[in-house]
Design brief:
Layout (H helix, E strand, L loop, with lengths): L3 E7 L3 H12 L5 E4 L15 E2 L6 H14 L2 H5 L10 E5 L2 H17 L4 E3 L1 H7 L10 E5 L3 E2 L2 H14 L3 E3 L2 E9 L2 E12 L2 E18 L5 H6 L8 E10 L3 H7 L7 E4 L4 E6 L2 E6 L29 H10 L8 E11 L6 E4 L6 E5 L4 H18 L20 H13 L23 H6 L2 E6 L2 E7 L6 H4 L8 H13 L2 E4 L4 E6 L3 H8 L10 E7 L5 E11 L2 E6 L4 H19 L3 E4 L4 E7 L3 H8 L19 E6 L2 E6 L8 E7 L3 H12 L5 E2 L2 H10 L33 H7 L4 E8 L11 E4 L2 E12 L4 E8 L9 E6 L2 E8 L16
Parallel strand pairs: 1-2, 1-11, 2-8, 4-13, 11-18, 21-31
Antiparallel strand pairs: 3-7, 4-6, 5-6, 9-10, 10-11, 12-15, 12-16, 13-14, 14-15, 17-18, 19-20, 21-27, 22-25, 22-26, 23-24, 24-25, 27-30, 28-29, 29-30, 32-35, 32-37, 33-34, 33-36, 34-35, 36-37
Helix pairs in contact: 1-6, 1-10, 2-10, 14-19, 15-16, 17-18
The protein binds gamma-amino-butanoic acid.
Organism: Pontivivens insulae
Pfam families: DAO, FAO_M, GCV_T, GCV_T_C
InterPro entries: FAD-dep_OxRdtase (IPR006076), FAD/NAD-bd_sf (IPR036188), FAO_M (IPR032503), GcvT/YgfZ/DmdA (IPR028896), GcvT/YgfZ_C (IPR029043), GcvT_C (IPR013977), GCVT_N (IPR006222), TrmE/GcvT-like (IPR027266)
Amino acid sequence: MRTHARAVVVGGGAVGASIAYHMAKAGWTDTLLLERDELTSGSTWHAAGLLPYFNMSYATTWIHDYSIKFYKTLEEETGLNAGFSVVGNLRMAQSKARMDEYMLYASTAESVGVPFEWMTPDQIKERWPLVRTEDLEGAIYHPTDGYINPADVTQAMAKGARQRGVEIIRKVQVDGFTRRGDEWVVHCRRMVEKGGNLIGGEEYFDITCEHVITATGNHAQRTAAMVNCYIPAMPVEHQFIVTEEDPMLQEYRKQNAEHPVLRDADAKWYVREERGGWILGPYERNAPACFKHGVPDSFRADLFPLDLERIEEEYMSMIHRIPSSENCGLKDDFNGPICYTPDGNPLIGPAPGVENFWFAEGFSFGITAAGGAGHYLAQLITEGEAEIDMWSLDPRRFGAWMNREYAAEKNEEAYEHVYILHHPDEERERARPLRTAPSYDRMKAAGAQFGQVNGWERPNYFAPQGFDDHASRSFRRGGWWQYAEAEAKAVREGAGLFDATAFTKHRVAGPGATAFLDWLTCNKLPKIGRINLTYGLTDAGTIRTEFTIVREAEDEYYVVTAGAATAYDHDYMVKEAAKKREDFGWIEVQDVTTQWGVFAIAGPKSRDILKEIISAADPDTALTNKAFPWLSAKRIDLGMVPVKAIRVAYTGELGWELHHPIEMQNHLFDLLMKAGEKHGLKLCGARAQNWLRQEKSYRAFGSDLGRDATPLEAGLDRFVDMDKDYRGKQAMLDTGIRAKCVTLLIDGPADADPWGREALLDGDQMIGRLTSGGYSVAFGKSIGIGYVKPDLAEVGKKLKVRMFRELYDAEIVEDSPYDPKNETIRANG
Ligand SMILES: NCCCC(=O)O
């Protein structure tokens, strides 16, 4: 019996098999895969096997692209034919808005290099006459994807893994994990078998390893609980039905090739051919989450009963779209659990708070994702970093505040959203409001239209009462655009107040704190009372986290990071601090996010407003440049509220962040609003802020800054100290400059701004893409931040940006096109 492996993969579905294969391919041949039943016996066996390219997320698009290309190579390597039918993928649109959605998606496809074509209704009809097209606007067509046999592709990957040295052991149940020194002990149980028959009784044994990777599908919550984690990976019932043969389809097929997989997103279904009939896969409303409290042990390769009523609408719409299907009876049905997460993306990466333990859970597109997920996760484990930015899939993007009830609500919503029109300005509605700052009700009464960051409600913009945000959403300038424009102007001309309570805040203190942060980040640490913007790097030298560090005392720091990244940053700092305590001394890392509310006041009038409420011997001088210089931090008192005031403003105007005890937020809000009345203080939201920061070329973590660019590529040289040593420095230098971040002013269409994913072209060559986009009130045109080939990153360079299939002029401008000398930020008074 095997007692040790370098890596143990738990779960023998498509994802687990792919991970084992890719770990071995990466050189970790001492990998063991454990499966409690037979390979594929979880969700894999009842998956429909679709391999769609279409996905709005970059990381997921890369992953799907890898899978599709990889599956095409498997037969040659393993001799097993996985049944890949490269029939293509026709995604139909019933409305202009849907075509707009496809055009935005096409930006992702174009920048990743995924082939696609546009089709008119007539072209569809000509090629596939069984499809009704008179109510269609058009379609996007991917010729290179299709579908595969899920069980066969899993077996092929498993065979490939074995050929590369992986051992696969079936019928082994993992009951727990214990950390022993630097190792994991995997506690296993096996049913005693003889000659293929269970003969009763159980065998218990342990396997030790360096790394554990779990791909346990519907069992994800139980698996995570074994290492004291909660992850919101919970299955939702998904049904699909198979019809009897369609005589008209059979007739058609005598002369023609198979139909592509047909997707009528507006009708919320896919349809593909299956043995002369059709498979219909609906993504209907009201599909229930299941196994909220775990999968019963009795549920093995089982299914739920079909609920035909729930999918009646989608069934009828298939008949509308393919009239010949009306006469086909129902031959078979599947209603099985498919794992979801609150945002519909899988969880691929480190387990929060746990060393050398990796999740590959929550896959709702498991067959399409398996190949790429295995490949990039193996890179992450064996090389320390993947070549794509995996942040949007990182398990730590979800906070520790989530629970089963939340997951059930959101995962049902994610299921329903598979085919819903995804406006880039969409805000999903379920499980809200949940995390609210105290001023939420006041903001709401003032017209706030909220978005969500890590569950926190945060105003996107303020509109008159009765304004319908949902109806205002668009791929172009939505109904909210005018309010964001007014807010952005108010900040440039007067003053605006933003709620930034969602920011992640940590206290890092102790005798080892200074040496630790100095090693963790690439900029010089600030002096006491000052702040610095700085970056934590990955081992590949790319940007892992953006930190605003306030030094409050010699060994005491207040560290502010992105609101979306609380668990991600906490996990990173805690794990790294634990490793460095021996070298540096005691380091305390405490998440204080929920203790501090944050307002940001910005604009030329912001000082005048604060003067009215500051408790100081001389309010007129307390906030001057001398008393309170730019990039410094101080404790001040505003009314009765003790405030950590930080002189920065993400909008690029004179301003302060006011970090205050969260329980005093309403008092502070009322004070600010009253004092601001005569100065025209305007409540503002994240949309205006996002536009304003682009005028200053302030990069946003998560879109402009991520694990695929070094700070030097991101043009952040002024925040990079070349003299000191820090994590990732050498790798950053070795990487060189593969692409360069630039700001562009864009003469786009009259009714739209870029969203930050559009392709950039030089002539007809794609040379980069936008990572942010919006509108500039200072220049009266669209603006964007993006990455281009380094030799083209010259001020004045004229490029084209593709929006809605058309090319528009874009020009690279000097960084910080608004107030390049920072005069307004430094304004005295
Ligand atoms: N399991 C994914 C089904 C949705 C789609 O292929 O469009």
